[in-house]
Amino acid sequence: MKLSSKNLETRQDTIYDAIVVGGGMGGLSAAIYLARYNLKCLVVEKGKGRSFWMQDLRNYVGFDPDTPGRNIIQHATQQAISWGADVLRGFVEEVTDEGETFAVHIKVGKSDTTGVTFRSKYVIAASGVIDVLPELNNMKNVFDYAGYTLHVCMICDGFDMWDQKAVLLVKTEAQINAAFVLNWFTPYISVLTNGLQVSDAMKQKLAEHGYPLYEQAIAEFLGKNHQLSGVRLADGTIVKATTGLVNMGSIYHNKYLKSIAGLEYDGENLVTNNMCQTSHPRIFALGDLKQGLNQVSIAVADGTLAATQIWRNIRRESAPRKWQENITEASKDSQAKDVELKT
Ligand SMILES: Cc1cc2nc3c(=O)[nH]c(=O)nc-3n(C[C@H](O)[C@H](O)[C@H](O)COP(=O)(O)OP(=O)(O)OC[C@H]3O[C@@H](n4cnc5c(N)ncnc54)[C@H](O)[C@@H]3O)c2cc1C
Predict the structure, then answer these.
(1) pTM for the full model?
(2) How far, in Å, is the centroid of ligand 1 from the Cα of 315?
């Protein structure tokens, strides 16, 4: 069911088997599997995450490479609801561990905000990350190109940059090293640091590869209809480029987990086992938020794994369902004897 501030009370007493934080690629995959295991699940999605921003999914088996992420999200949300999952538009502010259950504190609504708490046996952290973009006075100018011809993922879009003039945008010197991987796709790379001064050693390395370095601040991106043609710098220099890669790091959506003791992180990524279970046995983590490749195929597979492990755990703790009409008096007697022998 689709939940909103108008019908929240219908679920107030529900203890969900799992609450999924984030209704992107991984979270919706988990919800579809959980619902089809007939487990009670709630997906909480704040809106406009990375998969919504993905203008086209280039490399997923069988999908048209122009398929926008928002279409997949919309379709998969309906799919999850149709199998029985609950979906709520809201922002998860905090998760607290109560022992048997988690209390998940959620802010619902934009202007007229309501706070609501739902409880679950398991939590799936599927809240992903968001890419850091250059901060210009006119952010609309950045959004006109970012995600179109100004890419944020080399694995996803390197192919589309093949032998084009490309700008590499960085925030730290270490991020410049992406140039020495991007050169698999194109050697025509100009590095833009947006005001950051870099070391002589890095200047030397870039010069040896023939990659120009521009340390001036960025004034604006140039082009038309999302097609980049260059970048104008604060001193008026124009760097010509038909494509680009933003490699300025990510913001990790993991603040709501900060009160959970003992969660193991690798940097900001959650560490998990091969079934996406974190160091807390009832918290699972998926996709971009956990260690590994930031790809749709990985997030979707992670959702499958986490939901299946949660089902296994719950199933193993549950009494088996029996076909009572077929159980004869004799087998009941022998079962009773078994119980007597065991106790
Ligand atoms: C422009 C762009 C192009 C891309 N192209 C490709 C491509 O071609 N192929 C490919 O495989 N991958 C591509 N990716 C990467 C892909 O989008 C991610 O790897 C994938 O979406 C990860 O899935 P996820 O479920 O881990 O995270 P997401 O899909 O980002 O989902 C996380 C969700 O959690 C929500 N959320 C976050 N915090 C909270 C909170 N506190 N409460 C409630 N909700 C919350 C967010 O709104 C978001 O919807 C691209 C990414 C971008 C940005």
Answers:
(1) 0.95
(2) 30
